TrEMBL record:
GO terms for molecular function: acetylornithine deacetylase activity; cobalt ion binding; succinyl-diaminopimelate desuccinylase activity; zinc ion binding. GO terms for biological process: diaminopimelate biosynthetic process; L-arginine biosynthetic process; lysine biosynthetic process via diaminopimelate. It comes from Pannonibacter phragmitetus. Pathway: Amino-acid biosynthesis; L-lysine biosynthesis via DAP pathway; LL-2,6-diaminopimelate from (S)-tetrahydrodipicolinate (succinylase route): step 3/3. Zn(2+) 1 binds at residues 75, 108, 172. Its EC number is 3.5.1.18. This is Succinyl-diaminopimelate desuccinylase.
Amino acid sequence: MTQALSPAVAIARDLIRCPSVTPAEGGALAFLERLLGEAGFTVSRVTFSDTDTPDVENLFATIGSGAPHFVFAGHTDVVPAGAESDWQHDPFGGEIRDGVLYGRGAVDMKGGIASFAAAALAFIAERGKAFGGTISFLITGDEEGPAVNGTSKLLAWAKEQGYVFDACIVGEPTNPAALGDAIKIGRRGYLSGIVTVEGTQGHAAYPQLADNPIPGLLALMSALDALVLDTGNERFEPSNLEIVNLHVGNPAFNVIPARAEGRFNIRFNDEWTLDALKARLHETLATAARPGLRYSLDFRRDAGESFLTRDDALITALANAVEAVTGRRPDLTTNGGTSDARYIKSYCPVVEFGLVGQTMHKVDECTPVADLDQLAAVYRRFLDSYFAG
Ligand SMILES: [Zn+2]
């Protein structure tokens, strides 16, 4: 059965058919290069390298001139399909069944890219290149991977080329249940740490000849668990510390171990900076430790500050477009995990709005084709109002 597909649906299907499992390009960027190039965009393909991570291809496409400069950010790489036998639909087939498009990346986030591409192409077709500003695509193949050779380097590259961005939408799936539920206007920060207590190994029957690190570790971890960091605020949930591991590695019953380790992860709001949080944690342990306890607190390098976007014009323009198309006034949220918005926030105000996230990273990832068309309509309305003059 052949049926005419809308531009957003056709682009999403074609992108899903590119097997761009991170870090593979899979033909997805080549497809976008062709699509956007034919519409008059200037397209650059940029590959970044670093030690101990795979080389990754990225794409930057731009049209128009001068300010305001709006940039849409996204990633074409996808997580692996897992066991393909668990799927009812070919993960890279782009199959449409009963009004639903199936495949890895349908919502995270080839669908979001397709909807924005459809919106931008329609906008350019109507307004031409002299629409009073610039529209760019910042597309990485390294969001689901280590994220070393992706958006952070592409932003620095664009800056070197002289590009200055005024506003950004990241097309990640932000809606919990229905299109129009939520716009993300910030993200919590994250920090992981390791508490190590040193003791002296010995025979469990002769504790006076040993120094058991476990009671000391329990006291420290209990103090961390009892810590109330804050009560949240109007934009953020309360900050939270979770103990994620206690590790002694002692298989014997008659041995007092030499060392014990506890690990924790914190998701924190904008009441904290990383430095202030680290200082509070050191202080908490110092208070809880018995005199003479030998312990250390170390933090993982991979950590991020929280941020909140305060550009009311950007947020209102997008919320109005969402409401006009979907009939829903979106919640402005800051929950969930991290995204590449954590890098973009240092360059320009950034918000996130995309498809419904329910099936992301799951088998039979899918989106109703109607959502792709609605999302394209939201982005188009946003572009119309952003470039209204
Ligand atoms: Zn994603």
